[in-house]
């Protein structure tokens, strides 16, 4: 065997781009630091930086505080009414909308399982997006998807006083972005090697909906959202999943990615 024989090019599984590795480390570090806080301090941090839809509804939507309080009383048991009412009075009594929580909530998580699952998905789908688009566009996509998820969740739960946290909306936006190209047909480059996922031309939307792999991928994603939102199997999560935030982030990622994609769409579409 010749010592000069070319080696097949491979991308190590754990060779994460710096932007993705940094993002994962930040999420893990923030959650680890929260473990060092007292319960009172952590609660205050959660209230200050999480998305609370009722706070936005009162401040920006013109909904009176009395309507929020009335919604809490409808169908509530006596033992659950008092804590929720107290929380609502505490949150809404501040009289602040806190618009920055549309982004800051994505850095907070409810448990180690929550942050680790999001980190795994972030690494899986953020990696091809960074390699294709670069660091700046990656962070833009994450931020826009997180904000879109927060807004859609607040719209669907306008009177909710419980805080919503997690990077799932940003991760969902990355999933949607990756769906544009990771399942595209493999091409061959002039140097004789097949294109990697992030090098392939973006598919047209009409081609995506006809791509069986994409349909299966999206079907599994939506099914997983349903399972974790309404079934919560085996105690994997500590609270219900905000599926509305996932959907909002996904829609933003799907719409935004073609606008920031540095590569053109595939030109040789399917022949009729």
From TrEMBL:
Stored InterPro entries: Peptidase_S54_rhomboid_dom, Rhomboid-like_sf, Rhomboid_protease_S54
A GO molecular function held by the record: serine-type endopeptidase activity
Compartments (UniProt record): Membrane
Pfam families in UniProt: Rhomboid
Family per similarity comment: Belongs to the peptidase S54 family.
Protein's recorded name: Rhomboid family intramembrane serine protease
Principal place of residence: membrane
Taxonomic classification: Bacteria, Pseudomonadati, Pseudomonadota, Alphaproteobacteria, Hyphomicrobiales
Topology of the protein relative to the lipid bilayer: Multi-pass membrane protein
GO annotation (BP), single: proteolysis
Domain Peptidase S54 rhomboid, first and last residues per copy: 97-257
Keywords for this protein: Hydrolase, Membrane, Protease, Transmembrane, Transmembrane helix
GO CC annotation terms, alphabetical: membrane
TM annotation in the entry: 12-33, 102-126, 138-156, 162-183, 214-235, 241-260
Native species: Microvirga alba
